[in-house]
Design a protein that fits this description.
Blueprint lengths: L1 H21 L54 E5 L3 E6 L4 E11 L7 E4 L8 E5 L4 E3 L6 E5 L7 E8 L2 E9 L5 E9 L6 E5 L11 H6 L2 E6 L5 E4 L8 E14 L3 E6 L7 E8 L10 E8 L4 E10 L2 H6 L15 H22 L3 H43 L4 H14 L6 H4 L2 H4 L1 H14 L22 H18 L6 H19 L3 H31 L1
Antiparallel strand pairs: 1-2, 2-3, 3-4, 5-6, 5-11, 7-8, 8-9, 9-10, 10-18, 11-17, 12-13, 12-14, 14-15, 14-16, 15-18, 16-17
Helix pairs in contact: 1-11, 4-5, 4-9, 5-6, 5-12, 9-12, 10-11, 10-12
């Protein structure tokens, strides 16, 4: 059993060490240059086909899209500025082309703020589906009208027609929360009708770690009565379809730190469903997808809120509707990881607000605080371990004496435990202090994947704690500190070859794992190990005294 266990650990270490070498990361594609910021630009040809509308209950697929636009048109770009964002809308389809998030700089070497876009595609596309027809609004050139620019409560209304159908799309902009309330009104249609909204099929990466940004491209939905769930682009094969049945409270397209989402306003009818599809694979990392939100048109009207901005936990939490879970952490471990992630995020944000330190120092203090809080538990576990050592000879004597009478042996063992105020489960209490930090570490691993508060934050020699340590100092120091911690812990303990091998192998495996992980994660774990050294030394000395006393 021992040999198989050691072989499994050795093979695990080999996989961790050599997998990056055998399967190196592909270089990210170059970013597409930002669009001209002029107020009026040339739009794509209206002859370009929109996405094919899916069949809905009570509808038929039309033989072709209706359009009243000529083969080629020149559309206008309308710019709206709020205190947080700069929106660029096109009159061809009445949708946003780009949303510039003014407070967040691009970190991929380009100058200027982050611009949410995907190539030359618009961020959204609208279609109206009725029982006998599908109208692609990106074939209609709308007439724009701005209101309220002087009062600070700005709105933008687009009006257009397609045959006998009139469409109005109105955006009402909030100044400080990245929201635009969107109202769509369709007249001239009969019978049941649906508004189909296509979310972005991807995002241009603007992060320093472009590969890491693209790996986290995903869609997420929030069913009205269940927890949020995410679907990574990489989890869908090209052409694979996935239905997310309603009612839905919101649907999200997201990169590592930013997202574009449709939310159901308070009191409005939930979204009917969302349809996801895997995009074409042009490289090893999946960078394309497709998501369509289906909204019922009630009396020809549909209302939703458009959020295009950062994945700031506090900001999303203030918007309600459990929007802060737009990053469903942990995959199949979500029921365990998500609560811990929420607790850790709340604690770190609270510490940042109260202490007013940079997040690097907040992580240092957080690591020390966790160890201090665990001090009493470690002491209790240590004393339980010492008591277990004292009664081991007596237990072994009982097992030897009654080896031919299992029932009597069990009775005598329970008697020994009872005389010393212990139970057979007391041995497991010694493992508890080692297990408690693991959920926190796991939660931090996922938190560092998407938490924009850590984006671009420097600390000492690190220029960004959300990226790996470029000099690998922290992972190495973490590995050394973990080995020293294990070495001290084994002092004055009975010889155990298995524990000895683990004490060598585990620090190496964790060091390799942290080499390409966020530096903040390595910082936290290193501080944890160093803060635990004094208590581990005291425990080892007390164990030695107890050993001499017996």
């Amino acid at each position: 059993m021992e040999k198989r266990f050691l072989l499994a650990l050795l093979l695990t270490g080999v996989v961790v060490v050599f997998t990056p070498a055998l399967f190196p990361r592909r270089a990210a594609p170059p970013s597409i240059p930002r669009a001209d910021s002029a107020e009026r630009t040339s739009a794509p040809s209206a002859g370009q086909e929109g996405r094919t509308a899916p069949n809905l209950p009570g509808t038929v697929s039309p033989p072709g899209m209706r359009t009243n636009a000529p083969a080629a048109v020149s559309a206008d770009t309308i710019v709206v500025r709020t205190t947080t964002s700069t929106y660029s809308f096109t009159t061809l389809g009445a949708v946003p082309l780009v949303v510039q998030v003014d407070s967040y700089p691009a970190l991929n070497g380009q100058r200027g703020p982050v611009a949410l876009r995907h190539g030359h595609e618009p961020l959204l596309r609208f279609r109206v589906v009725t029982a006998g027809d599908t109208i692609a609004l990106d074939r209609i050139v709308f007439a724009p009208a701005k209101e309220g620019a002087q009062s600070g409560s700005e709105s933008l209304t687009f009006s257009g027609t397609n045959g006998g159908v009139s469409v109005s799309v109105r955006y009402e902009f909030a100044q400080d929360n990245y929201l635009a309330r969107t109202n769509v009104e369709v007249t001239g249609v009969t019978g049941p009708a649906f508004l189909l909204v296509d979310l972005p099929s991807g995002f241009d990466t603007q992060e320093a770690d472009t590969a890491g940004d693209m790996r986290l491209l995903a869609y997420a939905v929030k069913p009205a009565t269940r927890s949020a769930r995410g679907t990574a682009f990489a989890s869908l094969d090209s052409g694979e379809r996935k239905l997310e049945p309603g009612p839905l409270s919101w649907v999200v397209a997201k990169s590592k730190y930013f997202l574009v989402a449709l939310l159901v306003p308070e009191g409005a009818r939930p979204f009917a469903e969302a349809r996801l599809e895997g995009g074409a694979r042009t490289r090893k990392i999946a960078t394309n997808g497709s998501a369509t939100v289906v909204i019922s048109l009630e009396n020809g009207r549909a209302t939703f809120e458009l959020y295009a901005g950062p994945q700031s936990w506090e900001r999303l939490q203030k918007l309600g509707r459990e929007f802060e879970t737009a990053n469903p952490y942990g995959g199949w471990l979500q029921p365990v990881v998500q609560p811990f992630s929420t607790i850790v995020m709340r604690v770190l944000l609270w510490m940042k607000k109260v202490l007013r330190f940079d997040y690097g120092w907040v992580l240092v203090i957080f690591g020390v605080a966790v160890r201090l809080l665990m001090w009493p538990l470690n002491q209790s576990a240590m004393r339980t371990s010492l008591r277990m050592q004292r009664i081991q000879p007596e237990l072994m004597e009982v097992q030897k004496k009654y080896k031919n009478d299992p029932q009597k042996q069990q009775q005598e063992i329970m008697r020994v435990y009872k005389e010393h105020g212990m139970s057979p489960f007391s041995a497991f209490s010694g493992c508890l202090p080692a297990l408690i930090p693991m959920p926190v570490l796991m939660a931090l691993f996922f938190v560092f994947q998407n938490t924009i508060e850590f984006r671009g934050v420097p600390f000492l020699w690190l220029h960004d704690i959300s990226l790996h340590d470029p000099y690998y100092i922290l992972p190495i120091v973490m590995g050394v500190s973990m080995f020293v911690l294990s070495w001290i812990g084994m002092r004055n303990m009975p010889p155990n070859p298995q524990s000895k091998y683990i004490s060598y192998l585990l620090p190496v495996m964790l060091t390799v794992f942290l080499l390409q992980s966020a530096a903040g994660l390595s910082l936290y774990y290193t501080v944890q190990n160093i803060a635990a050294l004094p208590q581990q030394w005291l425990i080892a000395n007390e164990r030695a005294k107890s050993k001499r006393a017996t």
